[in-house]
Amino acid sequence: MTWEHPRGYDCQVAAAAEYARRTGVEVTWEFRSLQAFADAPLEELAAAYDLLVIDHPHVPLAAAEGLLAPLDGHGLDDRLAALAASAVGSAHTSYAHEGRQYGLATDSAAQVAVLRPDLLDVVPEDWDAVLALADEGRVLWPAKPIDAFSTLMTLAANHGTPVNAEPGTFLTPEQAAPLLDLMHRLAERVPDWCLAANPIEVAEALSAGDTWSYAPLAFGYTNYSRAGFRPHRLRYVDIPRGPRGVAGSLLGGAGVAVSAHASDLDAARAYALWVASPEVQAGVYYDAGGQPGYAPAWDDDRLNADSWEFFRGTRQTLEQAWVRPRYAGYIEFQDTTSPWVTAALRGEITDAELVRRMSEQAERLLVPAPTHHLSEESA
């Protein structure tokens, strides 16, 4: 099971066809919409499918609940070590938990900037330049709940005050104030529909007409940088510089994982390792619309030439990206609090109320799971 986009589905179908040709093993992929895939409980998906494309923040909870099969310890450790050595930033380790590897970063992404080079002579280097361009009505920004939340997390890490710097903490009002002020100023300068838009919708708008020319924070999609995908090509570059340069962007991407209930664990693990291999990532996987996750593909001259230097142009941001808190409660924290960020941007709740609510949820969810010890009597 994967998600409905060439970057999520077409690349896996093409890779599976090549795998069947080489090995005789057939892998059949299905998809859901990106939102439906995000909303479906991983427990249900792991019960129904052998292979899953997942987001790395799901790993701690999935590991705790025994939903995913570890990839290490089954004669594949040398190949896993080679992948770890060729990781882009923290992408590979984001699928590890408590010493076990539960997925492979076959798709690496973070919030980056995107532009129309034919409409923009000077790329904004910092947030003052971004706001100045937004004053001209030329900027878009995906700020639906999960993306507004992601922006807040990125800005916090870039300012040197990452969320959950101490377990169970969010941000103090003093830390949150400049971040939310910047987000409000940006929200006031972009179209209202941006507060319900995701990165795909922003990329579609940028690539379709000549009104807008730039978005400062949006998860990258190499598809829009390739000739012929849309009427106009987009170029992806590093995020606007802040207090820590381009460091702190929220790490996204997707990875291939094996269900603990897979009908053939060894066959599923073999496919996962194969599709993550440099040959496949820089070959059939990319050519069918995939966005490779490991450095050999990111360094590949052919792929960079084909994608308007997508990989080299965003590499610095990816290498310094911020990894979300590694707790089983994180997904509930993200799902619960994301709508509140957009609500604050709309003026439906105050910034103080947002910080208070998110702090309460952090205290509850961004902490290690309790360890239960048996008493002598119960033992």
Automatic annotation (TrEMBL):
Q: Which domain of life is it from?
A: Bacteria
Q: Kindly give the PANTHER family that the UniProt entry links to this protein.
A: ABC TRANSPORTER PERIPLASMIC-BINDING PROTEIN YCJN-RELATED, ARABINOSE-BINDING PROTEIN-RELATED
Gene3D superfamilies named among the record's database cross-references: Periplasmic binding protein-like II (3.40.190.10)
Q: Which UniProt keywords apply?
A: Signal, Transport
UniProt keyword Cell membrane present: no
Q: What is the official name of this protein in its record?
A: Extracellular solute-binding protein
Say if the entry is tagged with keyword Secreted: no
Q: Which family does the record assign?
A: Belongs to the bacterial solute-binding protein 1 family.
